[in-house]
Write a structure and sequence with these properties.
Shape: globular
Mean pLDDT: 88
Order of helices and strands: EHHEHEHHEEEHHEE
Helix content: 25-40%
Strand order of the largest sheet: 3-4-8-7
Strand content: 25-35%
Length: 205
């Protein structure tokens, strides 16, 4: 039986129109000239057949999802990605983001992967004050300090998540500063810039 790739996109903003357009570009054959040859017409196929690829968009703030809702959306997922979002979530609320990651840990089955990609450098630090109320004593400081996003992520998944049930995650890959550069031979109508990013890959154990 052929495998089917099912993608679920979650965001607080309404990206449904964009997701639908991207899906149609993948699931439908691209436009072709009426003067194209018979061979070209025969070879003009979609990137993925409709019965092999599906997309669902969920408009919701993940920090507002309780564990039951997270289970509906993420249970059975083989790969969960958090793309250029985690630092914003931490900046919004460290306790809520930590709870989200811990709930996600309980929802995902062993073998599932979690991929986190975010900006490197000063954009990936979070400022904590002495009035911060978190469950981690290590984060209670007398003065404001900045903590790298990857430290908070590792602390939550590799330490806190393991306190009651033993080891829950294995870190497979880490790159704290990696450049993604646009190939010189590619061009787009809108200007695209290179980006320096950090990459963290975990496996649920």
């Amino acid at each position: 039986m052929a495998r089917r790739l099912q993608v679920t996109v979650v965001d607080v903003a309404d990206w449904s129109g964009v997701v639908e357009k991207l899906y149609s570009c993948i699931g439908e054959a691209p436009p072709i000239s009426k003067y194209a040859s018979a061979a070209a017409r025969a070879a003009n196929r979609p990137l993925a057949a409709a019965d092999r690829f599906g997309v669902e968009f969920v408009r919701q703030d993940v920090l507002d999802m309780d564990e039951g809702r997270l289970r509906v959306v993420f249970e059975g997922a083989a790969l969960v990605t958090i793309m250029f979002t985690l630092n914003e979530l931490y900046s919004s609320s460290i306790p809520a983001t930590s709870n989200f990651l811990l709930s996600l840990t309980r929802v995902l089955a062993p073998g599932a992967r979690l991929l986190v990609v975010d900006s490197s450098g000063s954009y990936s630090t979070v400022r904590l004050s002495k009035s911060s109320t978190t469950t981690e004593d290590l984060l209670l400081q007398e003065e404001q300090k900045t903590y790298p996003m990857h430290w908070l992520l590792d602390h939550t998944l590799l330490e806190i998540a393991s306190e009651d049930r033993g080891k829950q995650w294995t870190k497979l890959k880490e790159n704290k500063s990696r450049w993604f550069r646009l190939a010189d031979k590619l061009s787009f109508p809108n200007k695209l810039e290179d980006v320096r990013m950090q990459v963290h890959l975990y496996r649920r154990t």
